[in-house]
């Protein structure tokens, strides 16, 4: 081994993260991340876990006892939900309206499900009747539907889907990673059986912890597949033949760890727990509806701003998430070089996109801590300057004026 | 929903964590955890990822290009290694000498492997010839062997196992969660094909990130099962029929994300990356061998101390890890109440154990930041006081004197 020079302490540059996420965390969340550790079964730790569960019940708008964190990034929560709810060979229906629909389908395929998909054009959402028609045709065990797909900025309405699923005896799962906290989400009122998220979008924290909530119906399915780990198994503990094909993502074991039995599974990621707890805490201190309204206001201002700069917005605006907007990169402007100039010259990050939209649109987010007037106006001022330096013809002050007017209620 | 009272900011009590882990993190690791976030593809972020890879190559003593982090707790790394290396039906051999051997077997079973185990009494380790005999008999694809099993405190010698595996065409995987950083580990010299760890033991960080390193031979197996995710797949991208039955733990995709192609997979857990980087940084600044020596000294002092208190040590001391010791709970002393008194009256955590040892031994750790003289002596002074208050007859000053003498070189 050649011993290389050891780098200095981590010292990130100043960044205003206005992309599709991750975004700049709330300062108090960063402070929580550095709190001292305690033991796994310290009464303080188990109390902090219980508090976190109760906080997320409020964030999700649910009474579900089974409301916990999965230790991993948002797709860890997705995989835990799908792998625990779906037996090999079960039919899963995934309506796809962007990249993350493809991800749900892929995860279900890896879980050995029989995956059926319906697709709509990127930039659109599904009507409830389109979903119901597919449910009737496919007769799935599980409907897996993204709420907000950051790849297209669309927000799939979920309000009527739960009732449809219930009527047809289908479990209803939604991933709300991109949307939770900045858009309406009503786990119980909408009839969700499972929902997952991440911290790095509207919740204003770092990636690495995935909030999840499960209805009693979902817990029943999961419990029927329960297996207690060899090495801590006691006589009488169950070991179902159709056990979940993952130890880490077996929600039955994860619930036993968070539940009163506190059966050892993983060692809870203490710092991420502290961060997740603080994300929910700042949200609820401000007020759940107030935070959604703040996201809507910032999103409307950013939308007015980019339109004020003469940029064309991608997709069906009436179904856009509050917290992100996609704009076509103007003809003649090199998309990646302009993004780089935003970062290098202004310290502001905006995003590109995936698949059919790669290189065609930029995505600009207004999420969590950064769903703020100063963040919106600063981004628009910088974007105007960068567009002009790359030769685009943009109205002087067009972005800032439109956004500031909207904030002023004009 | 009844809206409950919103708790205050996280404010953990003072704790000296002297159990089997998690342990108190290095202060600089906690500071790193609160550094501001940057974007996923920010040049600063990709540079921090590359630095972290290079730091862990030194920690693992390897030249493996494929040295990365898995975003999850230590068992996430274990599941990623086993699930990516083992095809359904492959034979896996797991020598079990404690709880975590059972865990490796369980994870391999969930990955649909044909699992074969050999077991030895808790408190012992395997001879190379016992492992070789089983390899010859089972003809496995993979040998999965824990290095340090915290449940028994034993440190399985690995030095000769790699050569045996190579000779029989077997992939060699070891989990070093409990041991890495505090005990010798030589990934290349010992012929490891895969090794995994966690931060919450000798590396002195929080749980939630799992360092992993993979030999070229392991990467070949993983690459042969490669599948690029739908939604970001391009023409010509592979999609092997025997793909890994997990998206999150598909090391082929994780390597593509960490590698030059930087193919989007999860969103790297930024704060955990900062923490993992700092864990390796403080270790290498002090010096890899120096840190192991510090663990050995603290472990020897704690061993002398508990023996000086008249406690009987569990297991084969000649194969004990440096960083944890198990002692029989003295006759007449209520084990859990005494541990509780250590915590409540002195703010010091020591551990219980699992399975056959549950309620019979305490486990006392000296790891990472807490592999320090003051931590050792304080723990022994408190333990003496607690034992006496619970009616045990203990030599006055016997623990502190023995440990202090050892530190003084007497």
UniProtKB/TrEMBL annotation, chains A, B:
Pfam families xref list: Aminotran_5 (PF00266)
Cross-referenced Gene3D superfamilies: Aspartate Aminotransferase, domain 1, Type I PLP-dependent aspartate aminotransferase-like (Major domain)
Protein keywords: Aminotransferase, Pyridoxal phosphate, Transferase
Protein name as annotated: Alanine--glyoxylate aminotransferase family protein
Cofactor: pyridoxal 5'-phosphate
UniProt GO MF annotations: transaminase activity
Domain Aminotransferase class V positions: 45-222
Upper taxonomic lineage: Bacteria, Bacillati, Actinomycetota, Actinomycetes, Micrococcales
Organism (species): Microbacterium sediminicola
Family membership: Belongs to the class-V pyridoxal-phosphate-dependent aminotransferase family.
Keyword Transferase belongs to the record: yes
